[in-house]
Design goal:
Elements lengths: L6 H36 L6 H35 L2 E2 L6 H14 L5 E5 L6 E4 L7 E5 H6 L2 H16 L2 H27 L5 H47 L2 H11 L11 H4 L16 H5 L6 H9 L2
Parallel strand pairs: 2-4
Antiparallel strand pairs: 1-2, 3-4
Helix pairs in contact: 1-2, 1-6, 1-7, 2-6, 3-5, 5-7, 5-8, 6-7, 8-11
C-alpha cells in the first residue's frame, strides 16, 4: 500500500509504475513470438529464428492492431451485455444525477453516461476510452443502501478512474490478456485434437511449443494486469477523497460494500476486475503471499486504512 505523500506526487508515482506495467504487455507478446521461433529453430525448422522473426512480427503486430480496433469500437456494448446494464434516466433518479453532475462540475469534467445494474449487491465501476464512451455504472443495491455522502464517495472514486485514464489503461490490459488467452486456447485445442503422421507430429510439436510459450505469456500478462488494477484503486480512492473532501465517507461506503459486493450473472471476469470491489469472499483477512499477486484489488481493509490517514 502506498503511503500518502500528497495526491499529486502519488499520481505521478502511480502513473510511472503503470506506464512500465503497460509497456510490459506488448513486450511479453513480442518476447513470446521470439521464444517460439527460437525453439523452432532449435528443432531445425526451415527458417533461422532471426529471419522468421522479421517476417512474422509485422503480421503479428497487424493482427494485434486489428484486434484493438474491433475491441475499442465495440467495448461499450460488450460491457453492457456482460453486466446486463441499462441507462439510468434522469427522471428515474435525480439523486444520482445531482451527485454525478455536482462532482463533475467541481473538477471541470464532462459528465459521463450513467448506467444501472438491477441487483441488490453493492458495487460500481467506470468504463470507456473517451468522452463519448465514458460511463459510470451503479448497482441498484449501492444506490439504495448508501447515504448521500457514501454514494458521493463511490461515484467520485469512479470519476477519478475516468479522470486518471484508468479505465482506458485497464481496457487495453484486458485486450492484451484476451489476445494471449485466445492464442493459448487455440494452441491447447490443436495439441488436444492433433493426430498422427510425421507432418502431424511436426505440427503437434509446433503447437505444443506455442501452447507452452503462450501459457507463460498469459501468466505474465495476468500478473501485469492485476498489478495495474491494484495500483489504480489506491489512486482512485485518493482522487475521490480530493474531490469530496470527505475520505471518511468513502471509507464508510467500503465497509458496507465489503462482503456484499458479489454481482451474480456477470458474463465476464474481466469486467468484474473493473468493479470498485472484486474480493467478495474477503472480509477481514488480507490477501497475502501468492494469492495477493493474482488479486485484482488491494485488500479492502488496507484501502480503508489508507483513506483514514488522509
Amino acid at each position: 500500500m502506498p503511503s500518502y505523500k500528497g495526491l499529486h506526487s502519488q499520481i505521478q508515482s502511480n502513473n510511472r509504475r503503470s506506464i512500465l506495467l503497460l509497456i510490459g504487455f506488448p513486450s511479453v507478446i513480442i518476447g513470446a513470438i521470439w521464444l517460439t521461433l527460437f525453439f523452432l529453430n532449435d528443432m531445425h525448422w526451415d527458417a533461422p529464428a532471426e529471419d522468421a522473426f522479421i517476417k512474422v512480427l509485422p503480421i503479428a503486430l497487424g493482427a494485434i492492431a486489428l484486434w484493438f480496433l474491433i475491441a475499442f469500437t465495440f467495448h461499450s456494448k460488450m460491457i453492457q451485455y456482460a453486466v446486463n446494464s441499462k441507462p439510468l434516466e434522469r427522471k428515474e433518479n435525480m439523486r444520482v444525477y445531482n451527485l454525478v453532475e455536482n462532482l463533475c462540475m467541481s473538477v471541470g469534467m464532462k459528465m459521463p453516461k450513467v448506467y444501472i445494474m438491477e441487483t441488490e449487491a453493492l458495487n460500481a465501476f467506470a468504463s470507456g476510452i473517451n468522452d463519448k464512451t465514458y460511463a459510470v455504472t451503479l448497482t441498484r443495491g449501492i444506490i439504495n443502501k448508501l447515504d448521500d455522502a457514501e454514494l458521493e464517495g463511490v461515484i467520485a472514486h469512479e470519476l477519478a478512474h475516468i479522470r486518471n485514464k484508468d479505465v482506458r489503461l485497464l481496457i487495453v490490459s484486458i485486450i492484451f490478456v484476451g489476445i494471449v488467452g485466445f492464442i493459448m486456447n487455440v494452441a491447447f485445442r490443436s495439441v488436444l485434437w492433433g493426430g498422427g503422421g510425421n507432418r502431424r507430429k511436426q505440427d503437434g510439436r509446433l503447437m505444443l511449443i506455442i501452447l507452452l510459450v503462450s501459457a507463460l505469456a498469459y501468466l505474465l500478462t495476468i500478473i501485469f494486469r492485476f498489478a495495474l488494477s491494484r495500483k489504480r484503486e489506491y489512486l482512485a480512492d485518493a482522487g475521490a477523497a480530493e474531490m469530496t473532501k470527505r475520505p471518511e465517507a468513502l471509507a464508510s461506503a467500503l465497509r458496507k460494500i465489503s462482503g456484499n459486493s458479489t454481482v451474480d450473472d456477470v458474463k465476464s471476469d474481466d469486467v468484474k476486475s473493473m468493479f470498485i470491489e472484486n474480493n467478495p469472499k474477503e472480509k477481514k483477512s488480507a490477501a497475502v503471499g501468492i494469492s495477493g499477486i493474482f488479486a485484482t484489488h488491494p485488500p479492502i481493509e488496507k484501502r480503508i486504512s489508507f483513506l483514514e490517514k488522509l
